[in-house]
């Protein structure tokens, strides 16, 4: 017999964010006083453009990041709705 466990949405968000690359991206964006562009994130994280794009897209879809286009660049910031959650996740992971 298989039991089904219901996981609350906030718990799903926490589990989703606990990935080394996602934590690295979230930390860099969180630590910035203003929006940061993708090219700066590549430099700061050391991730490839493709891998960074993949994780940024998934973080945006889950509502962790907001994106603002500035010419040909895209700038990212932590969403207002998930700011406190991101702060707690980063503290729990001991990377801030």
Describe this structure in words.
- The protein has 96 residues and is α+β, with helices and mostly antiparallel strands.
- It has one domain (9-92): Arc Repressor Mutant, subunit A (Orthogonal Bundle).
- 54% of the residues lie in helices and 15% in strands.
- The chain has 5 helices and 3 strands, in the order ααβααββα.
- The protein has helices at 9-17, 20-31, 38-45, 49-61, 83-92, and strands at 36-37, 65-70, 73-78.
- A hairpin with a 2-residue loop joins strand 2 (65-70) and strand 3.
- The chain is globular.
- Keywords: DNA-binding, Transcription, Transcription regulation.
What would the keywords be for this entry?
96 residues, alpha+beta, 3-stranded antiparallel beta sheet, 3 strands, 54% helix, globular
Indicate the topology.
Elements: H1 9-17, H2 20-31, E1 36-37, H3 38-45, H4 49-61, E2 65-70, E3 73-78, H5 83-92
Antiparallel strand pairs: 1-3, 2-3
């Amino acid at each position: 017999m298989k039991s089904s466990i219901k996981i609350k949405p906030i718990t799903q968000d926490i589990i989703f964010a606990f990935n080394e690359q996602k934590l690295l991206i979230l930390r860099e964006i969180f630590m910035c006083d203003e929006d940061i562009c993708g090219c700066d994130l590549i430099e700061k994280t050391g991730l490839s453009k493709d891998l960074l794009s993949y994780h940024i897209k998934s973080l945006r879809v889950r509502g962790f990041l907001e994106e603002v286009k500035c010419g040909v660049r895209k700038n990212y910031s932590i969403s207002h709705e998930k700011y406190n959650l991101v702060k707690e996740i980063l503290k729990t992971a001991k990377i801030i």
